[in-house]
Amino acid sequence: MVDALEHIARNSSGGDLRNWHIIDLGCGKSLTSALLAVRYPGMQITAVDQRREAELPHYHAAGFPDVAYRQLDIRAAGFVDAIAHDIKTAGRPAALLGMHLCGNLSEHAIEIFHHVEDARVCILAPCCLPPIACAP
User: Fold this and answer.
1) Which residue in 61, 69, 101, 110 is a FRET match for 29, CA 20 to 30 A apart?
2) What tens digit of pLDDT does each residue of 73-109 get?
3) How far apart are CA 25 and CA 100, in angstroms?
C-alpha cells in the first residue's frame, strides 16, 4: 500500500509525499499511519476508525504532531461530509487508504472517493469481500 502511494506521488505533485494528506480509513491500531509518519515527517495524516482514541498510539506525545485521529463510522450518514471537510481544510492533495476494509467497507471507501472532490487517490487492499451476489 505504501509502495503504491509512493509510486503515485513520484508521478504527481512534485513527488514529495510530505505535501499530501492521507486518510487512513479503518486504521485499526493505525500501523500504516505510524509507518507513514516515521517515513514522511510533515505529512498530514488522519487515522479513522471506530476504536476509542485511548486504544491508539499517542502520536503527539511521540513527536508526530501531524497525525490526527477521528473516531468515526465509515458507514455513518455524515461520514462523507466530515472527511470532505477535513480534506478541504488541509488544502493538500489527499489520498484515501484502506487496508483490510472487510466486507462492504471497501465499497464505502470507493463511494467516498467518488463523492469527495479533493480526494485524488484511493488505494485499497481488502482482505475479504462480500459474495459477488451481493455486489451493487
Assistant:
1) 110
2) 998 999 999 999 999 999 998 999 998 887 788 888 8
3) 9
